[in-house]
Design goal:
The protein is mainly alpha-helical and 201 residues long. It is 75% helix and 2% strand. It has a domain of 73 residues. It is built from four helices and two strands, in the order αββααα. The protein has a two-stranded antiparallel sheet.
Length: 201
């Protein structure tokens, strides 16, 4: 029979910082190594040693349970923290994706508006160019009409001038003499008629 104080034994008082699991394993070891009684399955063990180990283990169980509960709580808090961080990461990624989509839509809409603006400007420039061409064509046509009329008037004046006969030498001499005689000079009867008749010849 093994006594608690026997040499080579490891009593429960030798170590104070032993968990309940270690103490229970010691009990199992003591029972396994105990001497069997002849013709029986019973073994010879130290009752006091085994009871002391069991009582020590039972006394340590509340601490073990508290530590287990604390570890379980820490585990739950850690998992909750990890889950919160994962949710925050997912939310941030979702927000970034939405912003990227919004920026893409804004850029696409800006390109669309710019394209429509450029097309409208081209149409407006085309319309103004056509209006300017029509205006210039109308002005040139009106100027052409005025120029044609002016040319006709000039041509008619030239033709009339060409058809008017030049005064004769006698008429020119008579006119010169009348001018030399001065006012009041009597040029005889019919002198005025002779002077003005030169336009009718």
């Amino acid at each position: 029979m093994t006594s608690p104080g026997a040499p080579g034994s490891s009593g429960p008082f030798e170590q104070h910082h032993i968990d309940a699991d270690t103490l229970l394993r010691r009990v199992v070891e003591i029972i396994s190594n105990a001497k069997s009684m002849p013709l029986s399955n019973s073994v010879i063990i130290s009752k006091d040693e085994v009871l002391e180990l069991l009582e020590d283990a039972v006394g340590r169980l509340p601490d073990e349970l508290r530590q287990a509960r604390w570890m379980l709580k820490e585990r739950e808090e850690f998992l909750a923290k990890v889950e919160r961080e994962a949710d925050e990461i997912l939310d941030a990624a979702r927000i970034r994706a939405e912003r990227m989509v919004q920026r893409t839509e804004i850029v696409r809409e800006a390109h669309h508006v710019a394209g429509r603006t450029v097309e409208h400007a081209r149409d407006e420039a085309r319309r103004l160019r056509l209006e300017a061409e029509d205006y210039c064509d109308q002005k040139l046509a009106a100027f052409e009409i005025v120029l044609e009329r002016t040319m006709k008037t000039v041509q008619a004046g030239r033709e009339k001038l060409a058809a008017t006969p030049l005064p004769s030498a006698d008429a020119e001499l008579g006119l010169a003499g009348m001018v030399a005689a001065g006012p009041g000079t009597d040029m005889g009867p019919g002198a005025d008629d002779a002077f003005f008749d030169q336009d009718r010849t």
